[in-house]
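step=encode ok
step=design start
structure_in=
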């Protein structure tokens, strides 16, 4: 397993090495040491590569991930797993603002807390946060799932489209057009799957509440035609 020390190796060399792996290569496991808050670590992975980062990272770690598995043994700055397409990103600590922004697929697991705007404009990504999330999370979320074991801050799901939100703790307030909805058997089944994949134990899906779009902002209502 290649070990890359960012104290002596330029970040560009790390990312280039991850991008240049040929199909059929045996070098699919990388360990990154001394990240020391570096930005844009392990971005643009486009294959089944495993990267273990031994420490905390700065902004945009694992951005645009497509098929890789990236684990950060520390905390992550803003924009972790932004625009992820597929694969898995695990943050063992906390994540700063807009974690998983615009993500189109894959699974993002945050084992600590996530700051504001977690899952903003999510487009198919699944996000599981073991702790709590900050304000304006899932703003304009289009699709995918946001699962929060702790609490949610102000304006959860503001201007939401069709992303599904599940919160186990308290929600400080709901954003425009976001409402609490019935949690049906198919939702419990999906929650069970996501909790298992995220390594969550001793938590039952029935402990969550579901939130979604009231569908008043982006659907034309003929009864209000005179107002347009």
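sequence_out=
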């Amino acid at each position: 397993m290649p070990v890359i020390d960012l104290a002596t190796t330029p970040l560009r060399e790390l990312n280039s090495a991850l991008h240049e792996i040929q199909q059929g290569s045996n070098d699919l496991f990388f360990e990154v040491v001394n990240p020391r808050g570096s930005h844009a670590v392990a971005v643009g992975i486009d294959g089944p590569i495993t990267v273990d980062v031994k420490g905390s990272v700065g902004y945009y770690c694992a951005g645009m991930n497509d098929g890789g598995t990236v684990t950060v043994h520390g905390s992550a700055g803003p924009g972790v797993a932004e625009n992820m397409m597929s694969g898995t990103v695990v943050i063992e600590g906390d994540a700063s603002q807009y974690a998983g922004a615009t993500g189109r697929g894959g699974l993002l697991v945050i084992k600590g807390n996530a700051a504001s705007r977690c899952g903003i404009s999510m487009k198919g990504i699944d996000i599981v946060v073991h702790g709590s999330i900050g304000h304006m999370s899932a703003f304009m979320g289009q699709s995918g799932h946001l699962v929060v074991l702790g609490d949610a801050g102000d304006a959860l799901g503001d201007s939401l489209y069709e992303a599904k939100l599940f919160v186990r703790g308290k929600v400080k307030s709901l954003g425009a057009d976001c409402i609490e909805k019935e949690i049906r058997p198919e939702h419990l089944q999906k929650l069970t799957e996501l909790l298992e994949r995220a390594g969550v134990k001793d938590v039952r899906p029935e402990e969550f509440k579901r939130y979604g779009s009231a569908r008043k902002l982006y659907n034309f209502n003929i009864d209000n035609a005179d107002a347009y």
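step=design ok
step=annotate ok -> Residues 113-228 form one domain.
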